[in-house]
Specification:
Radius of gyration: 20 Å
Shape: globular
Distance between the termini: 39 Å
Number of domains: 2
Number of strands: 2
Helix content: 40-55%
Number of helices: 9
Mean pLDDT: 76
Largest sheet: 2 strands, antiparallel
Order of helices and strands: EHHEHHHHHHH
Strand order of the largest sheet: 1-2
Length: 222
């Protein structure tokens, strides 16, 4: 069966609320000279002001659907994908060394990016088989969804978050102590959030982080 694949629409969304970089440096007690701010080349950055990840996902999805001229009811499947943990490490390493090799990633034969988790390709192709079964009307949409979410438990999806990357992200302060057990606890909570249909909030607070580690869904989704 020949299937044409292409992109018919794309969209992005950033929060409308903005803060100046100089204000943020001041709040974080970071010394920044005018020369430093000039080198950054950024005057303002968008910040969430009460909007959660679900709110922004909804806004950008509606924009993409409008551009494509289709209704949400016409969608057969939604693929949610992230390379955040590995890319966060890479950005931190590049900031420290200025070596662009860190942007090349390390995953062989990736589906989308060399920064994706090693098991992602295997999971993706297995999910494709389920989707094709649905398109051929051999299984229903609820059955296809159930199979894909069950498959998420069959792959390790290692989330490689290092302690130094956690410090750069602000999850830890420079002087904070964290054990190998704590880091593993973080990885498992993050991995659970990535593969669970009831977590859509962006990580932006300790409340969200500890909710993930406790395997508790986002309250507005249940």
């Amino acid at each position: 069966m020949d299937i044409s694949v292409g992109i018919i629409s794309a969209a992005c969304h950033v929060p409308p609320h903005r803060r100046s970089v100089s204000e943020l440096f001041h709040e974080e007690r970071v010394q920044a000279t005018p020369q430093t701010l000039t080198r950054l080349g950024i005057d303002q950055v968008p910040l969430c002001n009460g909007e959660g990840g679900s709110f922004m996902a909804l806004a950008v999805s509606q924009e993409a659907l409008q551009r494509a001229g289709i209704d949400a009811a016409q969608l057969d499947v939604i693929v949610d994908y992230t390379i955040l943990p590995r890319m966060m490490n890479a950005l931190g390493d590049f900031t420290t060394t200025r070596d662009e090799e860190h942007f090349h990633g390390e995953t062989r034969n990736p589906c989308f990016s060399t920064h994706e988790d090693p098991d992602y390709s295997k999971f993706f192709w297995a999910a494709v088989e389920v989707i094709e079964a649905y398109e051929q009307r051999r299984i229903s949409a609820p059955e296809a969804s159930k199979k894909i979410f069950e498959m998420a438990d069959s792959y390790e999806f290692p989330v490689v978050i290092r302690r130094d990357a956690m410090i750069r992200a602000g999850w830890l302060k420079e002087g904070d102590q964290v054990s190998a057990r704590d880091v593993e606890f973080t990885r498992k909570g993050f991995r659970w959030a990535l593969t669970n249909p009831h977590t859509r909030d962006l990580f932006g607070s300790s409340e969200t982080f500890f909710r993930w580690c406790a395997r508790r869904p986002d309250p507005h989704l249940v």
